[in-house]
Specification:
This protein is of the alpha/beta class. The protein contains 13 helices and seven strands. A five-stranded mixed β-sheet has the order 3-2-1-4-5. A two-stranded antiparallel ribbon has the order 6-7. Strand 4, helix 2 and strand 5 form a beta-alpha-beta unit.
């Protein structure tokens, strides 16, 4: 016998619904448990009673902020957990009857029929890398905001300035000396000095985070392999590692590109086929990362003879920079998928060649396939 348990998980409580293959209705009354130590203990004891009869226990739960903790707790009791991909499971969100009890019942029903779309839950180390990368991004954005504020202040005072002069300590000190030398800008100098101190503290925090990321990934095979790509920096390698984790999850390069939303929408009905813009589904960080990787490659002086970059320049002239950078990013993702799948370092010699422009129909077919 197998017990199928649907769980509607929230921050303070979770609602469960139990059924088996033989019983279409719940075996017990639908119960609610608090997300406390006692609440989890009571629910785990219930699972243990089911397991004691020799039955299997399968649990379906939506992906939320505390799903990882819930999954770790119930797996200790021997339950098999399916984390639901909410993007592909619209039954609950679009239901006219939206209650915790009904949601739990719906999950258990679809679980018993093996119809729940599963979401991949990354490992603990990967989750930590993602958290550090997000913290670093917030700090960098804060630094940019402070610099923009200073730049706007200098412009309002009629002082000539370039944003790049704020990037170094010498440049910032030069700006501060200019303000302090003018008696009319005493208050402005105090404000700018405070903002410079904030920038320096943030930059120190960013360095600490980067040191932690270096320590976490120093022996990581995927990161070291990605760093062999011409124009790929550590931040790019860390991001691809964090949001890919296990390349074997993707059966093809096309599925990998679809995972992070660099494939176009397709509507195929009868004899009519419509192609739209890219889906932009999946991790935005990974999508942005591949665009940054292409820009990094483009900045390198010895990549102009690569077929991919020749195609990028050709498309940029004929279709604009937006479409060209997306096409190049997808191509780079295919190369990364092949590298990681075959466990081979990047070979720049394979990139060299002459790009032969294709017709619009051929180009569209290439994008789709």
């Amino acid at each position: 016998m197998t017990f199928f348990i649907g769980v509607d998980l929230h921050k303070t409580q979770f609602t469960v619904h139990v059924r088996t293959e033989e019983e279409s209705e719940s075996l017990d009354q639908i119960r609610q448990y608090p997300t406390t130590t006692d609440g989890y203990a009571e629910f785990l004891a219930r699972i243990s009673r089911y397991k004691a009869t020799g039955a299997d226990v399968k649990i379906g739960v939506e992906s939320t902020g505390n799903t990882r903790f819930f999954k770790n707790q119930v797996e200790k009791a021997g339950a098999e957990v399916t984390v639901i991909n909410t993007l592909k499971f619209k039954v609950i969100n679009e239901s006219t009857k939206k209650t915790d009890k009904h949601d739990a019942s719906t999950i258990s029903e679809f679980l018993s029929k093996d119809m729940l779309p599963e979401s991949y839950l990354c490992g603990k180390e990967t989750e930590n890398i993602r958290r550090l990368l997000k913290s670093r991004e917030r700090l960098v954005r804060s630094t940019v905001g402070q610099k923009n504020e200073i730049h706007a202040l200098l412009v309002s005072l009629g002082l000539s300035d370039e944003l790049r002069s704020l990037q170094s300590k010498k440049g910032r000190q030069r700006i501060l000396d200019t303000l302090e030398s003018n008696n009319d800008y005493v208050l402005e100098a105090q404000s700018v000095k405070l903002m410079f101190e904030i920038i320096e503290r943030i930059e120190e925090s960013v360095k600490i985070i980067e040191k932690q990321l270096v320590e976490l990934t120093k022996d990581d095979e995927m990161v070291n392999r990605l760093l062999t790509i011409r124009g790929c920096g550590k931040i790019t390698a860390w991001t691809i590692r964090a949001y890919t984790e296990d390349i074997s999850r993707f059966a093809s390069a096309k599925k990998y590109a679809a995972f992070y939303g660099l494939v176009p929408w397709v509507q195929d009905s009868n004899e009519t086929i419509h192609h739209g813009k890219i889906t932009k589904r999946g991790p935005q960080e990974l999508r942005t990362c591949f665009v940054q990787l292409v820009l990094g490659i483009r900045r390198c002086k010895d990549t102009s003879n690569w077929r991919m970059m020749q195609r990028y320049e050709y498309m940029k002239t004929n279709k604009g920079s937006g479409k060209s950078i997306v096409a190049a990013a997808r191509k780079m993702a295919e190369i990364v998928w092949a590298m990681l799948s075959d466990k081979k370092d990047f070979d720049a010699q394979k990139m060299i060649g002459k790009y032969k422009p294709m017709s619009l129909a051929e180009e569209a077919l290439t994008v789709m396939n």
